Amino acid sequence: MKALYLLAIAFGSSLVAQTITFNGCHNLFDNQNFIFTKTGVDSYNKGIYITTPVDGQPCGGLGTCEFKIQWNNTLTRWEFIADEGNGTFTTPSLIYYNSTGNNGSQRPPSNTFGTWIENTAITTGQCGGNLTGTNSTMTGDVHSSSLGTSDLTKSKIQIFPNPVSDVIRISGIDNGQTTQIYNLDGQMIRSEAFDEKINVSSLSTGVYVLKIVTKNFESHEFKFVKK
């Protein structure tokens, strides 16, 4: 994709809080939605979201676009980046970034929380400034408060035993919808309807991430060790 012309983001959700859909920056892009799918988590348990399809997605008359939302732990901020054109993200361009109250959240902030700052060095100001609720939409697997995945709620949720040999038990949640298990490479290896007991006896020894998604699309993630 042609560097610089990246900016009409669209964050909105359709699948159980696993997608983000964005629409904005119409000066550079057509008025269309861009769908980001969560592909896993990084080493800090932060979600990684990439547009689908990664390659060949039309964006107005500018060619094809590949976008990614990810956590930059060095700069402690979420970043919206654009690929150089082949889906590898080896030398991406930074389009927006948000560093307000996000350290504790495993999901990126919405366009109405903190400030998604336009990187005018790349966009030359053609996006019309920082993201707001009036110039863009961003919905789905995002958060709109400083707690993100509510720390207060999460403190009431427990998984045990940990380490575990056979069955993980979940307590403190009454509106669970799904549970998902990821390896440390961010690959989802299991997804099933919520149950307070999860049999993990078939997993290989190692460290995993258990993600619990509620019926109101909140998500809670916990590391556990399989003995």
From TrEMBL:
Top-level taxonomic group: Bacteria
InterPro entries: Secre_tail
The keyword Signal appears for this protein: yes
Pfam family, one: Por_Secre_tail
Domain Secretion system C-terminal sorting: 159-219
Signal listed as a keyword: yes
Span of the signal peptide: 1-17
UniProt keyword list: Signal
Name by which UniProt lists this protein: Secretion system C-terminal sorting domain-containing protein
